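Long-time lurker. I teach an intro course on protein structure, and each term I like to show students one example going from raw sequence to a predicted 3D structure in token notation. This year I'd like something fresh instead of my usual example. Would anyone be willing to generate the tokens for the chain below so I can use it in lecture? Attribution to the forum is fine with me.
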Amino acid sequence: MKKKTFKKKLKKKFKVFIIIFVLAILLFLINSNKVLSQDIRLTYYYPNDDTGSTKTTASGLDIDDFQLNTNGWYTYNDKVVIAAAINRCTLSNQGICGNYNQLPENFNQFNIYDEVTIAIEDVEYPAIILDICGASYWEEEYQRYDIFVKNSSYPIDEFAKLSYKVKVYKLMLE
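-- Reply from a regular --
Happy to contribute to a lecture. Here you go:
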């Protein structure tokens, strides 16, 4: 008789554990869709500028894959092409990334193809990170992000706000 009671109690505890576990995962997934924001400095780069930029981005896409908007900014699938600190660059110690493998505290890094929103003077632009920005690694008051523009006739140097959704894998690493 004691064995049956023990088994019933064990089954009940296991069911409670499974329910709590499933609820915890659901809460985690719901909370992983949080949108975070960061005050940033937006600057620009263009093919053949003084920093050695080319027409090809770190994504492998180049200016032939992009469209130009009325601001002279390259877009990809209607999103502004920007450069940022990139995870794989931070982890590398070779090539150009060898110079940029340490990120200042409270600065962000992303993956190629991550999507964000940039807001300049309360105008929001959907953006996609397709390139590496060395200046994103510099120790400055505001982290820099670069907009890919047609040429030097389309300069930008603005304070802006960058918004992005937190991904589940990023929460798991914290």
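Some talking points for your students: The two ends are 48 Å apart (CA to CA). Helices lie at 2-31, 87-91, 168-173.
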